[in-house]
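Worked Example 4.2. Read the sequence first, then its structure tokens.
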Amino acid sequence: MTIRFNPIYIRMSFLKLLKSSIFILALSANACQSSEQEQTQGSVTDQSTVPAVDSAAQTERRPAPDFHRIPTENAQDRVYVCDDAHADVFHTEYNCELLNGCQTVKKNVTLIRAVEDYGRYNCDICSKDMAIIFDEKQVIQRR
């Protein structure tokens, strides 16, 4: 017993496959487009609800710190930085109000990388205790 393949069935299955592929492609393109519109609308509403930050402090970034002494046990601690042209501080808490005002990408980096590579200072709100790493008079005691 042999089975013959009829070319009509092959063409029909190919047409069904082509139609379903086009349908899936159209659905995925539509889904991507609606999420982009929601993101644009979300960013417009986010800008209006962000609290006003002192514009004089945010106009220019401070130069990178000249001196820092990070204890070895804190060197690998993770901190957050806002990848913004005006931001010049790192944050130890993700829900810091200054970090929530970030309109660009928020990065999670090590403390030593935030200071050396990104040239960041400590945030006065969430990381006041980190101010000692920039104090030249501070003596770090080893245990």
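Now turn to a second chain, presented in exactly the same format:
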Amino acid sequence: MGGEITWAVWLLAGLLLLVVVVWVLVAIHARRQRQRDGRPEGITGWLVIPAAQLVLGPLAIFASIGTEIEVLSMEGSSPEKTALHILIGLSLVFALWIIYVAIRFFEKKSNAPRLYKSVLILYWISPLIQYLVFSLGIDLSITPFLIAFAIQIIPTLIFFSYINVSKRVANTFTR
């Protein structure tokens, strides 16, 4: 296994390529937008970060689902497998929700900022959901889950505030 290129390496290479393509497209769009008028509008500026999160988030979730499926194929106890089945289902629903929000976001629909806030909240509470799922039959320490929960509150608060007060957001999501 030392010299093999695994599916994870190919996935990371694909993610990197996708980030570059999205970045170039956003830059082209921003240049056209600035030429059109002086109002801050379009998925540029700080909105690039939520756009990247909405594109890369489902890919990362699908990669983690792949890892969880590999773990399911190993020998293990029944409570662990039950927890993984539940976690895979929840992860799949979360990834599909993010894809839906991304579609609304890139279509610049007026409800996209509100939907993106729901994604932020789900990212914020997901460590606690994971703890609850895994604690069904396994004795775990809650500390790492609480640390992840606390760390995720920072970007959640920053982007909640940005979505609420930004003129660019108000001017962009009007359809």
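Notes for the reader: The mean pLDDT is 80. The chain has one domain: 7-172.
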